[in-house]
Every structure is written in C-alpha cells, then in structure tokens.
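Summary for the funding panel

The consortium committed to producing paired sequence-structure records for every protein in the target list. Below we show the first two records in order, beginning with the earlier of the two.
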Amino acid sequence: MSSKDILKQALKLKPDERFIVVEGILKSLDEPDSSLESIWVEEAEKRLKAYREGKTKGIPLEKVFK
C-alpha cells in the first residue's frame, strides 16, 4: 500500500480516529535513534577533550546569541 493510499484511508476515519493516527506518527518521529545518539556523545566527548587540552576555544554565550 502506498503512502497516498494510506492517506486516502486515513481521511475516511472519524476526526478522533485521525487524531490517534496523527499522534502515533508524530510520536514515532520523536523517538531517539540510538545510533545517532552514540555518534553525538562521541562527538561531544571529543570536543570537550579538545577544549580541556586547549586545542579549541569556547565562545561566550552572549556572542553565540548575538
């Protein structure tokens, strides 16, 4: 079944049933991807190490939001 077919079927549902479908789809998009999570943790640790070793400098918060 194609996404267009699914949409056609979903639009036939009652509003409260459509809400349940939409809510379920949106929740599925918010689930963290564990492989991406581990990549970001590794990157954050590398950046912190570089900062602590003086290989990189921090940027003041005020400048970041300017």
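The next record, for a separate protein in the list, is shown here:
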Amino acid sequence: MKLISSRMALAGASAVLSAAVVFAPVAHGEEVGSVNTNFHITGSDRVVVEAYDDPLVQGVTCYVSRARTGGVKGTLGIAEDPTEASIACRQVGAIHFTGPLKQQADVFSVSMSLIFKALHVVRVVDTKRNALVYLTYSDRVVSGSAKNSVSAVPMPAATTIPLK
C-alpha cells in the first residue's frame, strides 16, 4: 500500500513540476562566452556565460555561468547538466519598468535536462534598500539542490520600484 501511495505521490509531483516548467518564464539568453573544461571527441564539457535581460526591468542584465555537458548526450540534448551556477546582475542602461513588479517572482527558467531539472532565476524586491535581488538555484522532481548564487542591483536614488 505504501509503495502505491509513494508512486502516486511521485507521479503527482512529476505532473506539477512538468506544468510549472511549461508555465515558467522561458529564458532567452545570449551566450557571451564559454571555456572548455573536459575534452570529448564528440563535444567538450564547458562552462558557458549567458546574458539574460530582465523582461520587466529594462536596463538590467543578469549574467549566469553554468556547466554544460558535452559528448554524445550533450550534443543530442539529452544530458543532465550539473546543478552549479553563478549569477551577476548589473545595471547596463537607463532603468525603466515595463509594469509593476511582484515582491518575488520567477524571471527566467532554463532546462538542465530533458524533462526533470531546471535552473531558475528569481527576482526579489528589497524595498527598504531600493534594490532588486536576483537568486539562481536549480530544482528537479525528486530532489532539488541547495546550491545557489545571489546578486543585487541597487536602483538609482530617484527611482522608485513599482510594486503590484
């Protein structure tokens, strides 16, 4: 009986995560550089740096570095990338909000495996310090990772962050 309940719970969790991945904001990153870390004849493992522009805050770009698996599985897109990632977000132009922001919201989500693993970037508004805080972490159906990275972008003195 416990085995059946566990399988049903796992199936339910899988369905919820699959739906969350489908409805999470899709990241449209631009690869700005990479380095090879492990040579394979069929394609090397590497660390890539990708730039993601915040869709609701013009003038803010987040740079995410993460490992990408090479080889045959990596080439076919079926490899599971490691969970390690780092983030640095910066003001790269004049700040303009395209609408009000939630206190905390997923900004980007990038698949790290065929179905069950994703890298997320969450934006948190720190109203007391007039800053935007960006957190990156990964999750998967059965067990996520506590590995994370955080970056903050202070707003110019005259800028007020519009909240929902």
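Regarding this second record: The chain is about 15% helix and 50% strand. Residues 2-23 form the longest helix (22 residues).
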